[in-house]
Amino acid sequence: MPLEMKVPSPGESITEVEIAQWLVEDGDYVEKDQAIAEVDSDKATLELPAEASGVITLKAEEGDAVAVGEVVCLIDTDAPKPEGVEPSKEESKEETNQPASEEKKEPAKTENKSKTYATGTPSPAAKKILDEKGIDPATVSGTGRDGRITKDDASKAIPSMGTPGLGGRGSERKKLSMLRRKVAERLVAAKNETAMLTTFNEVDMGPIFELRKQYKETFKEKHEVSLGFMSFFTLAVVRALELYPDVNSMIDGDYKITYDYKDISIAVSGPKGLMVPVIRNAENLTFRGVESEVKRLALRARDGEITVDEMTGGTFTISNGGVFGSMLSTPIINPPQSGILGMHNIVERPVVKNGEIVIAPVMFVALSYDHRIIDGRESVGFLVAVKEALENPVELLMDNDVKKALEL
Predict the structure, then answer these.
(1) pLDDT for 131 beyond 70
(2) Domain with 69 in it: what CATH number?
(3) For 254-306, how does the pLDDT look when each residue is reduced to its tens digit (9 = 90+)?
(4) What is the C-alpha separation between 65 and 233, in angstroms, rounded?
(5) CATH assignment of the domain containing 380
(6) Are the C-beta atoms of 123 and 99 separated by less than 8 Å?
(7) Do residues 276 and 335 make contact, with C-beta atoms less than 8 angstroms apart?
(8) In terms of pLDDT, which residue wins out, 94 or 364?
(9) Residues 205, 269: one domain?
(10) Catalytic residue numbers, as ranges
(11) What is the model's pLDDT at position 210?
């Protein structure tokens, strides 16, 4: 009896998924635990492994939305495993398809020979175009058989909106993945359902540049991970959240929930779009711990292995648009969180130090926050606290002991 493969639940609150891609074809022999499909939920893309070995029969098409628990394929476990690719399979397919193709063509030819049209009569496709544009078929010259107006004739009859260039003018219509649709839905909800406001500041990255220049090689040799900017920003955010706990809060109906832990979401770009894995209890991590976790999560997101649980439950988000060259932006809150910090590119700019104009590596930073729960004092104070920590990391993030903080 064939085994029915049903859609497993990819996570709490997820009721349906979308078949993003079948990795096998109908009638293929599959091995147990072999990846047979990629399915999109509203939070992640996951692989669907075969539950048994046998010949597979697909019951859903790519792009179909299927409910959790619904049968998507059958596996005939009694079917023998083929010893190798049978060359006759393709040949038989061609032999099977060829006569069918010829049979379809022959009646069409016969039909076309016997059927005639009045001069100026549009084809169904041409008629639709002419009706939509309000063009009288009598004003269009037909180039089809017996003077029939073809779709191409109708398209050419549409008044030009300008002289086209020599380049191609193609287009593609492609359905958004469930993950991308969910991201879009959440972003629109954040704009419509929160009182979002953004405050800005600038950070002199010179002190961090000096620390990385002096210790990054030793740090990498010792911990097998680079000393990047993300650990400095994450720990600066943790410190600022301690000082301004309202930024680490969320609204739940008529209540405010404030968390005593700091789960920092890191926005990263993956093959399926924007993903936001979470660094759990960042307040307990060192520079090495943050960098290792950032690397682990980024690799899992890039390879499509990130799970729903790893992207759920953050209390604050950091987004680094600087890696793409962004100078300044207003990041959108990641609901139900109340704040997001936007990092941007680092550019040498003239600044005033001790009454003199000098050149320094400067980054503009932005904090978008929900004004329903965070007031101006807290938002500005939070961003200033982040700025202070980044401009004086040895004292405020390392307790004046760089080697101990970096575990060197």
Answers:
(1) yes
(2) 2.40.50.100
(3) 999 999 999 999 987 766 667 889 999 999 999 999 999 999 988 888 887 88
(4) 40
(5) 3.30.559.10
(6) no
(7) no
(8) 364
(9) yes
(10) 371, 375
(11) 95
